[in-house]
Amino acid sequence: MDISKRLQAVAALVSYPQVADIGTDHGYVPIFLHSLGKLTRGFACDVRKGPLEKARENILLYGAQEIIETRLGSGLLPMQPKEAQTAVIAGMGGMLTIRILKDSPEVAASLKELILAPQHDVDAVRRYLHTIGFSIETEQMLKEDGKYYNILRCIPGEEKYHREIDYLYGKGLLLQKNPFLKELLTVEERKYCLVEQRLLESQTENAKERLLQVREKLGFMREALACL
C-alpha cells in the first residue's frame, strides 16, 4: 500500500495482532498491518459513514474482509473491553484523543498498548496518560511535507515526569536528542524572541502580562534545547 511515512511509523509501533484503528478514515492502518502479516483481528472504527464505507471497499479490495471488520461509532465506544489488544488513535487533536479515552475507560484500561499520534496538545495527552495508568514507552517525532508529527507507544504502568519540559516536549525525545525536535524548537525560539521584542516596546498592561508568559515559554524552550 502507498501510505504516508507517518502512518507507516504508526503501524511499525504496533506490537500485538488484535488492533482497533479509531478514526480509521480509509482503513489504511489495519489494511497495511494485514499486508505485513501483523494482524489476526482488526477493527476499523469511524464516526462517519462515508469514510467507513470507503474503508470497507478498501478492505475488500485487499482481501482482508475475513480479518478486518468495520464499526460505526465515536471513538472507542464501538469496542468492548478486551476485544482488541491495541488501539491506534492517529491524526486527531490531543484534546479529542483525551476525550476518546475518557469516554471509554473500561475499554482503555483493558488495552495492552495505545499507539497515539495527536496533531497538537501533545503535552496534555502526556499528562492525561499518566493519570490513567499508562506510561510512555516510546516516543518518536518525524517530519513529513513540512509538518512535524509525534507518535507515542504507551503501555500500562505507573509513570510521572518530574520536569515540565518532559511533558511539554517529550522526555523520550529529549533523551534521544531528537533532531526534528531540535529543529522545531530552534524555529519556535526565534519566533518567541521576536514576540518578546515587540512586547517590550509596548506599555500596556496586557503586553506586560503576555511578556511574562512569553518569557516563561522561552525559558522552557531554552532548557529543552540545552538537552538537545
How is the topology of this model organized?
Blueprint: H1 5-12, E1 18-22, H2 28-35, E2 41-46, H3 49-61, E3 68-72, E4 86-90, H4 94-103, H5 105-110, E5 113-117, H6 122-131, E6 134-144, E7 147-156, H7 164-176, H8 179-200, H9 205-227
Helix pairs in contact: 1-2, 4-6, 6-7, 7-9, 8-9
Question: What report would you give on this structure?
Answer:
This protein is an alpha/beta fold and 228 residues long. It is built from nine helices and seven strands; from the N terminus they run αβαβαββααβαββααα. The protein has helices at residues 5-12, 28-35, 49-61, 94-103, 105-110, 122-131, 164-176, 179-200, 205-227, and strands at 18-22, 41-46, 68-72, 86-90, 113-117, 134-144, 147-156. A seven-stranded mixed beta sheet has the order 3-2-1-4-5-7-6, with helices on both faces. Helix 4 (94-103) packs parallel to helix 6 and helix 6 crosses helix 7. The radius of gyration is 20 Å and the shape is elongated. The protein starts with a helix and ends with a helix. The model has no long low-confidence stretch (mean pLDDT 96).
Give me some keywords for this one.
9 helices; elongated; 228 residues; alpha/beta
Q: Which regions are unreliable across 5 or more consecutive residues at pLDDT < 50? A: none
Fraction of residues in β-strands? 15-25%
Considering DSSP H and I runs of 4 or more, what fraction of the residues is helical? 40-55%
For this structure, the quaternary state is single chain
Number of contiguous helices: 9
> How far is the N terminus from the C terminus?
35 Å
Radius of gyration over alpha carbons? 20 Å
Placed side by side, the strands forming the largest sheet appear as: 3-2-1-4-5-7-6
